[in-house]
Every structure is written in C-alpha cells, then in structure tokens.
C-alpha cells in the first residue's frame, strides 16, 4: 500500500466519522475505488487506536463498518449457524 493510498483511506475514514448518521453508505459509494482489504485494515488500525485512547464509540463504529465491508468483500468468514439444540448437544459431547 502506498503512502498516498493510505492517506486516501484515512481521509475516507474521517469523512465517515464526520458524516450525519445514516449517510455512511453514500460516503462509501462516493469512492468505490478505495473499498478494498487495505481500507478495511486501515479502519481496524484506526479503531484500535481509538479503543486504546478511550474513544469507545468511535472504535465500535469503525469496527462495525469494517466488519460489514469485510463481509461484502468476502474477507469475513460466514459461519453456519447451528439449527437445532440436538446439533449443539452433539457438538458438546464431542468436546
């Protein structure tokens, strides 16, 4: 990732943080060329810094957006949910 691209990621993150609630999709759609695994990684880095600095709301917001984008990009594994209690029991017994 180039320094220039990273600055573009951080600028887009800043736009997300400043936009009115509910306008996040429009902000992201305005720069689709930046929506990739590098952007998700940059969001996670910023969210981690926020968490360490005590900005829990900002961190949770960025983690949520990053997770949703990761799902859309196929970077976040979708785990199959267990459909019945008997399957849970079977799993528990094997452990």
What report would you give on this structure?
By secondary structure, the chain is an all-alpha fold. Helix content is 68%, strand content 0%. It contains 5 helices and no strands. It is globular, with a radius of gyration of 17 Å. Residues 81-95 have low confidence and may be disordered.
SSE topology string: HHHHH
Largest sheet: none
Overall mean confidence score, pLDDT: 86
Percent of residues in helices: 55-70%
Secondary structural class: mainly alpha
Count of DSSP-assigned helices: 5
Distance between the termini: 42 Å
State Rg.
17 Å
As residue ranges, the low-confidence spans are 81-95
Amount of beta strand: under 5%
Key features?
95 residues; mainly alpha; 68% helix; disordered C terminus
Show the helix and strand layout.
Elements: H1 3-18, H2 24-29, H3 37-52, H4 56-72, H5 85-94
Can you summarize this structure?
The chain is mainly alpha-helical and 95 residues long. Helices cover 68% and strands 0% of the residues. It is globular and about 30 Å long.
């Amino acid at each position: 990732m180039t320094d220039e691209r990273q600055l573009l990621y951080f600028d887009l993150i800043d736009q997300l943080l400043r936009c009115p609630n509910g306008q996040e999709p429009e902000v992201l759609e305005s720069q689709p060329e930046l929506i990739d695994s590098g952007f998700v990684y940059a969001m996670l880095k910023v969210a981690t810094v926020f968490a360490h600095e005590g900005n829990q709301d900002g961190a949770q917001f960025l983690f949520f957006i990053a997770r949703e984008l990761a799902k859309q990009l196929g970077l976040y594994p979708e785990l199959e949910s267990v459909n019945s209690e008997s399957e849970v029991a079977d799993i528990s017994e094997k452990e």
